[in-house]
TrEMBL record:
SUPFAM superfamilies: Pentapeptide repeat-like (SSF141571). This is Pentapeptide repeat-containing protein. Gene3D superfamilies: E3 ubiquitin-protein ligase SopA. InterPro entries: 5peptide_repeat, PA_immunity-related. It comes from the Bacteria. PANTHER family: ANTIBIOTIC RESISTANCE PROTEIN MCBG, PENTAPEPTIDE REPEAT-CONTAINING PROTEIN.
Length: 190
C-alpha cells in the first residue's frame, strides 16, 4: 500500500495477501470481496469500516484496532483476535464463518453475532457480557471462565456452557436449549 491513511475508500476484489498493512489506518472504508487470508496485521487501524464477503481466515491481528467494524458474510476461520488492540474494540458479525477463532481474554462486551457459524471457537477468559448470539451454531465452542452476564443465547444452538466455570448472571436462554447448560453435570435426557 502506498499511503498510511485511507479515508472513505472502497476496496473491491483486492488481494491484500502480498501487501504489508502494518501501521496503516482505514477510516470509513468498505472492503468488498477482499482477501486478507493468513496476513499479519500489525498495528493496523480499522475505524468505522465494513467488510463484505471478505476472507480473513488465519489473519493474525497484532495490536490491530477494530473500532465500530461490521463483518458481513465474511470467512474468519482461525482468525487470531487475542492480540488485537482492546481499546475501543467494537465489532459486529452477520452471517460469518467464525470457526476456530481465538478470542482468548478478548473484551467483546455487547458484540452481536447474527446467523454465524462458530464451531470450535475459543472464548476462554473473554468478556461477552451483553453479547447476542442470534441463531448461531456454537458447536464445540469453548467458554471457560468467560463473562457471559446478560448475554443472549435464546436462539443459539449446539453450545455447551458449564455454569460453574462461567459467569451467567441474567444470561438469556430459551427453555428448548437448556440442555447445553446441563451437559457438564452428566445428566441424561430422554
Amino acid at each position: 500500500m502506498d499511503k498510511t491513511y485511507y479515508y472513505k475508500e472502497v476496496f473491491m476484489n483486492e488481494d491484500f495477501t502480498g501487501d504489508h498493512l502494518d501501521n496503516i489506518e482505514f477510516e470509513d472504508c468498505r472492503f468488498d470481496n477482499c482477501n486478507f487470508a493468513g496476513m499479519s496485521l500489525i498495528q493496523t487501524v480499522f475505524d468505522n469500516c465494513v467488510f463484505n464477503h471478505c476472507n480473513c481466515s488465519l489473519a493474525a491481528c497484532m495490536k490491530t484496532a477494530f473500532r465500530d467494524v461490521t463483518f458481513n458474510g465474511c470467512k474468519l476461520t482461525g482468525m487470531q483476535l487475542e492480540n488485537a488492540h482492546t481499546i475501543g474494540l467494537q465489532v459486529r458479525f452477520n452471517n460469518c464463518l467464525l470457526n476456530q477463532v481465538n478470542a482468548y481474554k478478548v473484551n467483546l462486551k455487547a458484540t452481536t453475532f447474527t446467523d454465524c457459524e462458530m464451531v470450535e471457537a475459543d472464548f476462554s477468559d473473554a468478556v461477552l457480557e451483553q453479547a447476542k448470539f442470534i441463531n448461531c451454531n456454537l458447536n464445540q465452542t469453548v467458554f471457560n471462565n468467560t463473562n457471559l452476564q446478560k448475554a443472549d443465547f435464546s436462539t443459539a444452538h449446539n453450545f455447551v456452557i458449564n455454569p460453574t466455570t462461567n459467569k451467567l448472571r441474567q444470561a438469556i436462554f430459551d427453555k428448548s436449549n437448556l440442555e447445553g447448560l446441563l451437559v457438564s453435570f452428566n445428566i441424561i435426557f430422554k
